[in-house]
Amino acid sequence: MTSKLPELINKPLIIGSKKIENRLILAPMTYLGHVAFRELLDESGSRNLMFSEMCSAGRLPHENRRTSGYFKWRDQETRRLIIQIVGSDPDRMALAAQRIETEGFFGVDINLGCSAKGICRHQQGAALLKSPQIAVEIVRKVRRAVQCPVTVKFRTGWQDDSQFPVSLAVRLQDAGADALTFHPRVAPDRRARHPKWEYIGLVKQAVRIPVFGNGNVFDEHDCLKMMESTDCDGVALGRIAIARPWVFTQWGSDDPSPDDLHRRTAMRLLTLTEKHFDPLKGLRRYKRYASYLAANFAFGNSLFNKIRIAADYEQIEAILTAFFDTNPAVLKRPNMHFMR
């Protein structure tokens, strides 16, 4: 354990009108940061701020939490959960934010970071970085529509220009954003290059609101280095949170972790996924998780391929049992080949 890290992350932080007790947060991730995974985090002892899967602003005002695949939550997590919305129309985004506030969530997050073709094709997510005036107007409209915290997750832009995210961060702050999560990669970069953490420091220096760094934090040494080198207020954990969910409690404590965490986590998430989703949606999400699980092991490729073609939960349970009974070798650092 890096002894300085618990001291840095176990500090309260004010976001808008609300307070969080810990500076590690679960980054928003579609198909991964879902209600079943968040329940797993709660069971592990985590009380950190969490983000939902990406939700469509157009659908959200009338979405039914019982049947929705994305706008789905447990009442116990409401006050620590930020709902992320994606869209391009400021008025629709504001209506979605009002629904979020009505349900009692911690806040609303505006997606300016997703670079998936299906999202950008509709001028949403990272595509809005090409039209920053619309992005700023969205934040302004949402801010006027709600009293709860408004946060924004964004990228460097579509070109490697350190001044663009700095300028945009100031404009987002002035439009009413209460906190920013910054992933310092250009939008077309699907993690092919290391994120430029120094840009996080530039953004932090330019604004008064909290800034969470995001990108390539895979162990406590990475986390400490990001916080110390950029002076960011906290760290949004993405891929490592899925591969090793216990990091939220482990990095904030000097207590040793049990040896069977990988097995218990994989099995428990299977049960929770079956609990919260119908078989089609649940299997899709668990198979997405399987690549992050496999990243932990020296010979994870076989595990991933078997889960990928499994027909149902029973087959996956049998695959997991057989795999863990062999006492597989655990990697100190996850295999990046699976973490894409």
Query: Helical percent range?
Result: 40-55%
String of helices and strands: HEEEHEEHEHHEHEHEHEHHHHHH
CATH topology of the largest domain: TIM Barrel
Q: Return the CATH architecture of the largest domain.
A: Alpha-Beta Barrel
Mean pLDDT: 95
The number of distinct structural domains comes to 2
Outline the fold blueprint.
Layout: H1 4-9, E1 13-15, E2 18-20, E3 24-26, H2 35-43, E4 50-56, E5 81-86, H3 90-102, E6 107-112, H4 117-120, H5 132-145, E7 150-157, H6 163-175, E8 179-186, H7 197-206, E9 211-213, H8 220-230, E10 234-237, H9 239-243, H10 247-250, H11 261-276, H12 279-294, H13 300-308, H14 313-324
Parallel strand pairs: 3-10, 4-5, 5-6, 6-7, 7-8, 8-9, 9-10
Antiparallel strand pairs: 1-2
Helix pairs in contact: 2-11, 3-5, 5-6, 6-7, 11-12, 11-14, 12-13
Structure description:
The protein starts with a helix and ends in a 16-residue tail after the last helix. α2 crosses α11 (261-276) and α6 (163-175) packs parallel to α7 (197-206). Helix content is 42%, strand content 15%. It is globular. The protein has 14 helices and ten strands. It folds into two domains: 4-250, Aldolase class I (TIM Barrel); 261-338, Bacteriocin As-48, Chain A, CATH 1.20.225. With 340 residues, the protein is of the alpha/beta class. It has an eight-stranded parallel β-sheet with strand order 3-10-9-8-7-6-5-4. Strands 1-2 form a two-stranded antiparallel sheet. β5 (81-86), α3 and β6 (107-112) form a beta-alpha-beta unit. 48% of the residues are buried. The longest helix is centred in the C-terminal third of the chain and has 16 residues, at 261-276. It has helices spanning 4-9, 35-43, 90-102, 117-120, 132-145, 163-175, 197-206, 220-230, 239-243, 247-250, 261-276, 279-294, 300-308, 313-324, and strands spanning 13-15, 18-20, 24-26, 50-56, 81-86, 107-112, 150-157, 179-186, 211-213, 234-237.
